[in-house]
Each structure stands twice: as structure tokens, then as C-alpha cells.
Amino acid sequence: MKEIFILLALLAIQSHTKADVMTLTDKNFNKIIKENPIVMVTFFTHSCGPCKTFIPRFESIANTVKNKTYLFAIINGEENGETVSAENITKYPTLKLYVNGKRFDYSSDRESDPIIAFIKLHSNYSSTELHTVEEVKARRDESGFRCFLAVANDNIKELYVNISKQPVLNKFYFYHAPTEVIHKVIPEAKEDSIVFLRDFDESQLIYNGEMNVKDITDFLLAEMLPVVTQMNRDVSSQLLRKGGKKGVFLILPKDDTDTLKYQMAFRNAAQALRSKEYIFIQLTTKESWGIMMADFLGIDNKVELPLLELVWIEDESFKYRHKGEITEDTISKFIKDVEQGLLPRYYNSEDEPIDNPGPVYKVVTGTFYNEVIANEYDVIVNFYDDYLKKSNDYMNIFEYLAASLKQNPRLKFVKIDVTKNDIEGHPIKGYPTIKFFPGKNKSVSYVYEGKLDVYGTVDFIASKSSHQHEIPEFIEGEDQVITLDESMLPKTDL
């Protein structure tokens, strides 16, 4: 299966004949950039592994974008050295955005949402003004999340245009036209009303709330999802962030004769309780998203399904669990009990490790206090996410330093997988997060904000320690059982 996927990816790179993605060369690069106001370019090579998986995704992003002023293009770095040199390309894939000839370097995740948000941010995207019935019909019949304002008041129009510029609404397409034009295509539209169209529901939603940025934005984000949804990137972006929505999860077993009964009860409860505050999400442990979310929700083969969880994220994640009978009434009561503070929080935790020899000691929710707080060791803790390459790369450095400094009896290296363990009172904003707990004052902790390399970590330990530790020099070329990017390896003496 893996070989087939790689072959398809290679074919996708080698056969870009679709109009949605243009192939650039040294001969046409400058001409295309000059003639098109907004161009997103991916620099790739056939020998680049990540390129083989990203190029089809890039093409898919181009296919979904409805703004025809955006041009998506690729250029092969192995065959177009002149452009590669002029654009200072040193790695692949590299993405660059050109807006009226001005270049912006893209360095975020190579996913649809952040890429489109980046384009909109730098191209000053805003609602498109339509003038004719034919233009409104054409936009109405496209796919995606489409919003139409029936303009009667210039102040409302200005508010709507400002709303359309928000990065959080980067998946939406905004249009406005005079009321009489919109009304001929969408009869339900009244003066200064906002009409919202979605692919999964043929009905048209009319916004009737207060005309302000927050309420309109909340309405659009809430209504972009079905009453009960599956886990996907849209849900994840709204749920798994500070200040996001609260997720009510129904986790179903792979096979159960009562599955339909649970689904109907969940849908009915969702319909009755639906608000801009909650997202109702159905998961099964056999789906890819279900497998990925299992660690976060604390679901393993010991947990009896089905069950309900209510989750939201502030500075830390808050989780509540219902294991009893699942009916419309029990679902409603569970949510109300959480709202009223009648239920205890659920803390996700791995089992305590049986064998834990060090030099990096594994801790879990149940052992964190004793291993980190209730002692006089200087403790450096690596809060990591085992799914992220950045976390795994730094773990190599962390383990190397622990082995190099193991002669210090009052210095302790600890790791905890934050996807499987919840630690109250220690909010984590990214992975890995490195915290230092000084032995003589455990009422404080320090977050490491430097470069994730050997030298930065050693300086951090030395500056925050409450005990004297013997710290050797780390010299370039020293034998290290470690696999890192070159930028993370030691370069000079301490």
C-alpha cells in the first residue's frame, strides 16, 4: 500500500496538466509573477521525500480555492537553477507568496487552512462586490462556505467587509451586492441580511442576530458544522485551541447492535442543546481520527464503550466523562451537571511504568507530584508529544544530555507524554515544552524559551539550578548516539 501511495504521488508531480496549478520555469517565472497579482509557488524536486506527499495536497488546495485571482504554481528546483538561485531556495519543499511582485516567505504548517489564511492575510482579502444577478447565481452555485450580504446600509457593508478579512474565517467566501440583486436570486434575503450557504445542507441560513463582529463570526463558525459532526480539521481547529469551543464526544465501539440507538439519542440531544458554545462529535475507535484522538481522550482497550466526554481547552485541557446509560435525557443531564460544577474533572493518565531506570525518568499523571514536586532535586521536565517530529528530535538531545550529566545526584531529567497525561496547574502551549523546577523552591517553575539544542538547554539548566552541578564541555565531533538536523548539533565549545 505504501509503495502505491508513493507511486501515485510521483505521478502527481510529473503530470501537472490541470489548470489549477501552473508549472513555472526559468523562462516564464518572472513574467507570471509580474502579470498575476497573487501567486503561491511551491519549489520542489523529484528527489525530495516530503515533496512527493505535499504536491498532491498543494494541488488539492488549489482546486478548493474559489477566488480566481489566486494563482497556484510549482517549479522544479533541479531543472530551474537560475530561479532557485535568485529566490535563495536552500531546501524543499519551499513555499513563497508573491503579491504584486512582493515576496513573502511561508514557514508555517503545510496544510490548507494556514496556507489559505497566509494568502488572505498578505493579499488583503475582503468580500467581493457583485453587481449582477448572473454573478450572484454563479457564486451561489459554487461549493464551499458562501456568505452573501444584501446591502442597504453602508455602515453594515463596512462591518461585513471587515468581518471577511478575519483569518479565523479563512475557509469562507464573502460576497455583497445591492439588496434588489441578491433578492432576485435568494428571495429570503432582506435588507442588510446575511445569507449563509453550505454544501452539506441545501437550506439557506439567514443571520438575524446583532450586527457586530463577534456575534456574526460566532454564528458562522457554529453553523459551518452539522448538528453532529465527525472529527476533522475544521472541528480540530475550533476545538483544540485555547478559548475554542467545547466538544461533546460520543465514542462508539467498533461493533455494537445498539449503535443506531446511541446515535439517535446523541443527535436529538445535540439538536436541543446546540449553541455557539458546543460542537457535538461522533467517533469510533476504528476511524483514523478516532485512533488519533484516543490518547487525548484517554481511550484504550480497557475502557468500556460507548461513553461520553465533554472537553474544552483554556490554559490547560478540561475533561469530564460519563460512563452510564446513553439516552437523550442522560446526555442533557451530563452537560448541565458539568456546567453547574457538579461533576469532577477526568484526568487522563498512562499506567505507572514498571521499569524506569533513567537517565530520563518517565512520569505519568499519578506520579508527577512525587517525582517532580515532592523532593529537593533540581528537575527538568520535557512535556512532549510523541506524534510530533519536533518533539522526537528534541527528545534525542534531552536523552543525550541526561546521559552526559547523570553523575549529578541532585539533577533529574523527567519526561511526560502530554497526549496521554493531564497535569493540573501546568498549562502547556506547545510541544515540546521544557520546564525547570528548582530543588530549593518548588513553588516556582521556569519555562525554557531558547533554541532547542544542546547548548541552549545546558545554559538553561545552569542558570536555573538551585544546586551545584558538574557540567562537562560539549565539543563538536564528540561521540553522540543521536540523530539530529545539522542546525541542532553542537557547533563550538561551551
Keywords:
22% strand, Glutaredoxin, five-stranded mixed beta sheet, 494 residues, alpha/beta, 20 strands, disordered C terminus, 4 domains
Give a written overview of the molecule.
The chain has 494 residues and is of the alpha/beta class. The protein has 4 domains: 2-122, Glutaredoxin (3-Layer(aba) Sandwich); 128-223, 3-Layer(aba) Sandwich (Glutaredoxin); 228-339, 3-Layer(aba) Sandwich (Glutaredoxin); 360-488, Glutaredoxin (3-Layer(aba) Sandwich). It is built from 16 helices and 20 strands. It has helices spanning 2-14, 29-35, 49-64, 81-86, 112-122, 133-140, 154-164, 179-185, 213-223, 233-239, 259-273, 288-297, 328-339, 368-373, 389-404, 454-464; strands spanning 21-24, 38-44, 70-76, 94-99, 102-106, 128-129, 145-151, 172-178, 194-198, 201-207, 228-230, 246-252, 278-284, 307-313, 317-322, 360-362, 378-384, 411-417, 433-437, 446-447. β14 and β15 form a beta hairpin. α6 crosses α8 and α11 (259-273) packs across α13 (328-339). Mean pLDDT is 85; it is low at 1-19 and 475-494.
Structure summary:
By secondary structure, the chain is of the alpha/beta class. The protein has helices spanning 2-14, 29-35, 49-64, 81-86, 112-122, 133-140, 154-164, 179-185, 213-223, 233-239, 259-273, 288-297, 328-339, 368-373, 389-404, 454-464, and strands at 21-24, 38-44, 70-76, 94-99, 102-106, 128-129, 145-151, 172-178, 194-198, 201-207, 228-230, 246-252, 278-284, 307-313, 317-322, 360-362, 378-384, 411-417, 433-437, 446-447. Helix 1 packs across helix 3, helix 6 packs across helix 8 (179-185) and helix 11 packs across helix 13.
